[in-house]
Model the fold of this input.
Amino acid sequence: MIQPTRRLRRLRNTPALRDLMRETRLHLDDLIYPIFIEEELDKKMPIAAMPGVDRHPEASFERELDAARAAGIKSVILFGVSRHKDPTGSDAWAEKGLVYRMVAKAKKHAPDMTIMADICFCEYTDHGHCGVLHEDGHVHNDLTLENLAKQSVTACRAGVDVLAPSAMMDGMVAAMREAVDAAGFAHVPILSYSSKFASGLYGPFREASGVRLNGDRKTYQADPANARAALLESALDEAEGADALMVKPGLFYLDVIQRLRAQTLLPIGAYQVSGEYAMIKFAAKAGAIDEKTVVLEALTAFKRAGADFVLTYFAKDVKGYLGL
Ligand code: PBG
Ligand code: ZN
Done:
C-alpha cells in the first residue's frame, strides 16, 4: 500500500484539535451592523430583496440598536432614507437634517456603542447620484467635496464616532479632515470606503435606501476590472489622512483585500454588501446551501484575506451561529 509522507489529516482528527489549529478567528467584535433609518415612516418596512432586513422609522429605530446590542454587536453604521431630496442632497448637512437627527438620537440612546455615519448624498439627492450633478451629466467632484465637508461637520456636531465617506470623490478624505479639524473635531476618525467598485451587487441596497438612480456610478466608483486603480485610491486616502480603509464589495474582491493588507499598516474593513447578502439568503431559502455554514465561511474568508473587521447585514445572526 502507498504510504503518504505527510498526513495533514492528523491535525483534523477532533473538533478540539481543529479549534486549536485554526489560523483565522471570527469574533463578534469584528462586526459592524448597517441600519436603514427612514424619516416619516410609521412602522418598520421589510426590504423584499433583503429578507430579514428592514427600514426602520426614525421615531423608533432605537429598538434596532437594542437588538444589535443584544446580539453582541457594538458598532453600527447608519444610512438615512430621506423624504427631503433635492439636487444637491442638502438635507444631509442641514443643521437639524436627517443625518444630524439620527446620529444624535443613536448616540443618546446608545452612548456605549460606536455610531458610524455613511457620508454620501445618494440617499438625499433627487437624481440618486453621490454628489452634485454638473451640466455635462457627470458628478462634479470639487463641488461635492464642499458638501461632503459640510455633511461631515454636521455629523460631528451630532456626536458621530466615525465618519465613513462612500462617495468615491477624489480628495474626499482631505476635504473632510480639514473641515472637521477646523470645526474642533480633530479626534473623530475617518473610515474611508477607499477601494469601492462600481458593482452590480449594490442592487438590493438601492431598494433598501430608496435610491432611484438614472444611469450608473461608473465615472466615480472603481472599475471592477482594476485592482491597481483601487489600491491607488486606498493609498491616496491613506495619504490624505484616512484612519482606516475599506474594500467594497467583499467576496468578489478578496484579492484586493489581500493586496491592500500587504500595502498598508492601517486597519482594513470589508463590506459584505446587499447583493452578497441576498445571494446567500435566497440560495439558502431555496435549500441550495446552508445559511449558517456559508455566512461563517464568507465572514472568515474576509478575515483570512486580511480584513480586520466586516460590515455585514448578517451581524445579528453571528452570535447564534457561533453558539454564543
Ligand atoms: C452609497 C452606498 C452604497 C452602498 C453603501 N453606501 C450604494 C452605492 O454605492 O450605490 C452599498 C451597500 C450595499 O450594497 O450593501 N454611496
Ligand atoms: Zn452615495
In short: The two ends are 45 Å apart (CA to CA).
